[in-house]
Amino acid sequence: MDSGAWAAVNGALRTEMRLDVLANNLANVSTNGYKENDITFDSYLTGPGPEQFPMPDQSFLGLRGPGDIPFPFSSPATNAIAITYPAAPSTVTKVNQGALQLTSNPLDVAIEGDGFFVVNTPQGRRYTRDGAFEVNSFGELVNKDGFQVFGDNEGPLVIGSDPISIAKDGTISNKNGTIGRLLRVGLPEESLKRAGRNLFEVPDNQVTDLTDAKGGFHQGYLEASNANVVRGMTQMIDANRAFESYMKAIQSLDGLDAQANQIGRLG
């Protein structure tokens, strides 16, 4: 595969991965508290000859060694020039605020500003912006999957069956007084890792307490997804056009190779 064809294949692969990310964003435009993803790519410049092999800590699409990587990686010419190849892609989560939507459900809570709710899962603590909560049979505040919502006491919030009010600072009260306070934590954007079920995970040492930070909690509201349908559809159209262009380029280059081979046989 010559460098022109490899560049076209590389572009098509990158665009296909971007299409997957954009499609997932569009599929979650109605998911409470969803944070859209974007994908970024990096490149590195190889040396000539055998030095074209990727460095040990670099890969693309999970390919790391000469046996896994197609030509020109697998059969570098000893006199080949340096070539730029793609490094592994990176997915970035955009944490900008979604719109606050009134539900009037007293167990729905939206966060305004930075921070995440903390829930207790079988795999440990996870974090979310989805504040569609319920009360389980033990009187505990839980999310839609039944995971306990943590308060600032680093444990579950037992609220019982009486009506509750939630102040902007997260304090939960009923007719008998204060029950507890919602825990809000800060997470570094670059460390966010999706854990399924609209949850995130990060290393424990990167979590910060934001209970007293600016913004606050809004009872009877839910935060909408920050994915934008119009923007997402526009990006999908652009990416589809780019993918089609790359595929046409690959087909054209393949045709030129076939013609060159035919001429070589005739000669």
Instruction: Report low-confidence residues grouped into runs of 5 or more.
Output: 49-56, 60-81
The helix-and-strand class reads: alpha+beta
Please tally the helical runs, counting DSSP H or I stretches of 4 or more residues.
2
What is the general shape?
Answer: elongated
Mean pLDDT over the full residue set: 82
Work out the count of structural domains: 2
Task: Please give the share of residues in helix.
Answer: 10-25%
Short summary of the structure?
This protein is α+β, with helices and mostly antiparallel strands and 267 residues long.
What is the fold's blueprint, element by element?
Blueprint: H1 3-27, E1 37-40, E2 43-45, E3 84-86, E4 90-93, E5 100-102, E6 109-112, E7 116-121, E8 124-128, E9 134-135, E10 141-142, E11 148-149, E12 165-166, E13 171-174, E14 177-181, E15 184-186, E16 193-194, E17 200-201, E18 208-209, E19 216-219, E20 221-223, H2 229-266
Please tell me about this protein's structure.
By secondary structure, the protein is of the alpha+beta class. It has 2 domains: 3-94 and 228-266, no CATH class; 100-223, no CATH class. Helix content is 24%, strand content 24%. The chain contains 2 helices and 20 strands. The strands form 8 sheets. Strands 7, 8, 11, 15 and 18 form a 5-stranded antiparallel β-sheet that branches. The protein has a 3-stranded antiparallel β-sheet with strand order 12-13-14, with no helix packed on it. It has a two-stranded antiparallel sheet with strand order 1-4. A hairpin with a 2-residue loop joins strand 13 and strand 14 (177-181). Helix 1 runs antiparallel to helix 2.
